[in-house]
Prior knowledge:
Layout: E1 2-7, H1 11-22, E2 27-33, H2 36-45, E3 50-53, E4 56-57, E5 60-61, H3 62-72, E6 78-82, H4 87-95, E7 100-103, H5 108-119, E8 124-125, H6 127-134, H7 146-156, H8 161-168, H9 172-186, H10 191-200
Parallel strand pairs: 1-2, 1-3, 3-6, 6-7, 7-8
Antiparallel strand pairs: 4-5
Helix pairs in contact: 3-4, 7-9, 8-9
Amino acid sequence: MIDIQIADDHKMVVESLSRMINESGVAQVTGKYYDLKSCREGLTQGIPGILLLDIELPDGDGVDFCAEAKKNYPGLRIIMLTSYKEFNIARHALHNGALGYVLKNAEPEEIFAGIQAVSRGEQFLCEEIDLLLKDKKDTKATWLTNREKEILRYTADGCTAKETAELIFRDVETVKTCRKNLFLKLQVRNMAELIKKGYEMKLI
Length: 204
């Protein structure tokens, strides 16, 4: 049985995924974390066979945490399990040490194939991401979540992270994480470039 731990802030997703994994006969979920703080604490108690890691967590960026976790635990095998199907984010996650990248809407068979491949030390990309990374033309296509579009608009209006958080009824860390994702997706280095790119791509 493959020892799995999950870090995702959506409890329904975690519970559904845990039930599916535990009933598969392939793996067993031994840890559930809803933020990076608890995940860090859990990893100090023991390293799982695989960590399924979401990208957008309430207290930080899963892609950044991937690099941190691999530095602290070189033997840890990580699969990014996310809704983000962006070339730059997937490439950055793999660069930071993720061995797998699977979309949350993937079929159960594909998720289990990823778990088994990564448990053997092999890289695994779900079909959609594999095609995306092979087709460099897709780097021109940028998809933003509704939340990211909203935060981009408030940023263009000159709102600070704190002001934006109050407007969208979220915490400041969520806003900062979304802005980091926007930097990656739009391939910019600072706020000025972010706003300029947003207008050029008619995202604002």
